Structures are given as structure tokens and as C-alpha cells.
């Protein structure tokens, strides 16, 4: 059986970690930049309440922003088209629709959106709020 010369029997005693660390840092920076963008692109200050339930599943979200514009997901819609857009995206009629509304929006606009959804047969409407922090509870 032929044997290899002593010069070719070198073992790798160290693995160069620099390229691995470079790639990991670049991926970390990419995720840090894109993570906030992946959330809803519509800026809304929702009201703060004591009772909060986490949303674990992806659902249809209707948003009313500070300018009283209505969105389904990230797409702007007119109030007349709201019911048809939401119904087309619902998988089952009993699925819930989440309503995010800026806290500065008048109650009349909020009530109009809820009424439009209810008139179209959507009865499971959940309102999105933020939890109160300890500092806000003492004020």
C-alpha cells in the first residue's frame, strides 16, 4: 500500500473564524434594519388599556390613521369599498378582523368603520390597543 509523504499529512489545527464573523455581522445588520419595516407601515398611536391579548395568528387588520384614512393591511381603501375588501380576504365568515385606530381619531369615524364592517356581516371585530406601562398607571 503506497504511503503519502510526510509533507502532505498536515492537519488543520485552526479554522479561520474571520469570514464567518463577517457574514454573521452583516446578517445581523440586515435584520436590524429590515425588522421594523416588516411591521405594519402605517403609523398609528393606538389607545392604551390594562387588558391586552396577544395576537398570535395573522389576521386581517383594518387601520384608521391620524388623517382619518382607512387601510386594509397596508392598502388604502375608501369606506365604501371597505366591506368588500375585507370580505374578500376573510377565509371564514367567523374569522375576526382587527381594528387599529389612532387615539386622536374622532369617535364618529371609528363608529362608521365598525358599522360598515357589521353591516357587511362581519361580527367578530377586535380592537387593537397597547398595554399601559407602570409609569402611565401612576399618572
List the SSEs and their pairings.
Elements: H1 18-38, E1 48-49, E2 60-64, E3 70-72, E4 75-77, H2 79-89, E5 97-101, H3 107-119, E6 125-127, E7 130-131, H4 134-138
Parallel strand pairs: 1-7, 2-5, 5-6
Antiparallel strand pairs: 2-3, 3-4
Helix pairs in contact: 2-3
How would you sum up this structure, described in words?
With 139 residues, this protein is an alpha/beta fold. It has a domain at 48-138: Nucleotidyltransferase, domain 5 (2-Layer Sandwich), CATH 3.30.420. Helix content is 36%, strand content 17%. The chain is built from four helices and seven strands. The protein has helices at 18-38, 79-89, 107-119, 134-138, and strands spanning 48-49, 60-64, 70-72, 75-77, 97-101, 125-127, 130-131. Strands 4-3-2-5-6 form a five-stranded mixed beta sheet, covered by helices on one side. A hairpin with a 5-residue loop joins strand 2 (60-64) and strand 3. The longest helix has 21 residues, at 18-38. The radius of gyration is 26 Å and the shape is elongated. The model has no long low-confidence stretch (mean pLDDT 77).
Strand order of the largest sheet: 4-3-2-5-6
Q: CATH architecture of the domain at 48-138, please? A: 2-Layer Sandwich
Helical residue percent band: 25-40%
Please give the radius of gyration in angstroms: 26 Å
The first-to-last residue Cα distance is: 86 Å
**Coarse structural class:** alpha/beta
Mean pLDDT: 77
Largest sheet: 5 strands, mixed
Shape: elongated
Please give the number of β-strands: 7
Order of helices and strands: HEEEEHEHEEH
Detail the poorly predicted runs: none
> Helix count?
4
Give the amount of beta strand, in percent: 15-25%
Amino acid at each position: 500500500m503506497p504511503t503519502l509523504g510526510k509533507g502532505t499529512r498536515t492537519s488543520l489545527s485552526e479554522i479561520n473564524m474571520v469570514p464567518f464573523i463577517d457574514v454573521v455581522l452583516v446578517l445581523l445588520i440586515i435584520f436590524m434594519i429590515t425588522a421594523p419595516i416588516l411591521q405594519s407601515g402605517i403609523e398609528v398611536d393606538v389607545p392604551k388599556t390594562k387588558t391586552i391579548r396577544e395576537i398570535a395568528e395573522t389576521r386581517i387588520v383594518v387601520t384608521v390613521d391620524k388623517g382619518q384614512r382607512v387601510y386594509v393591511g397596508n392598502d388604502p381603501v375608501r369606506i365604501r369599498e371597505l366591506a368588500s375588501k375585507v370580505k374578500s380576504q376573510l377565509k371564514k365568515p367567523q374569522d375576526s378582523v382587527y381594528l387599529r385606530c389612532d387615539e386622536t381619531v374622532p369617535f364618529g369615524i371609528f363608529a362608521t368603520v365598525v358599522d360598515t364592517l357589521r353591516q357587511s356581516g362581519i361580527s367578530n371585530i377586535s380592537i387593537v390597543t397597547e398595554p399601559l406601562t407602570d409609569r402611565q398607571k401612576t399618572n
